[in-house]
Amino acid sequence: MLSKTMQAALNEQVKIEGQSSQVYLAMASWAEIQPGIDNITAFFYRHSDEEREHMLKIVHFINERGGFAAIPSFEKPQMTFPSIIHAFKSLLDHEIMVSESINKLVDIALAEKDYATHNFLQWYVAEQIEEEALARTINDKLELIGEDKSGLYLLDRDILNLVARNSNTMGPA
Ligand code: FEO
Known about the structure:
The chain has 173 residues and is mostly helical. It has five helices and no strands.
């Protein structure tokens, strides 16, 4: 059975994961109307879907442990970006915030001696390592590319391979 404190903290994470899904959905929609970045667009849509899955996993966990997952409303995300570089910088900052939030949940689980939740959260800890690493790789590449349009073309061509390679090297998702 979840403590009230743990339940409230997990519900807060439901909101954060759902908000993440909205944030990346907005990036996807913006990217979709930019010319020539179809795979980057697909990356954002896929990332948005994954965040929704992260949210649902927590919803089910709360409910299965005798709590109640309260579905929250979400804030309106940023809808347009000055450039692809800005969008990916924002994605990295967002993932760093999510990692901090997961770490706080782990702290609470330990303080509550809630080892089941602690165990459940390890998947998120690993996932955040993976997502931050991928976001950093893409940001590094974009920094090298700068304003070079052919570089952006190559990144768009390679981004889905980059995602596949990242999840292979970082272990199970
Ligand atoms: Fe589920 Fe990218 O945080």
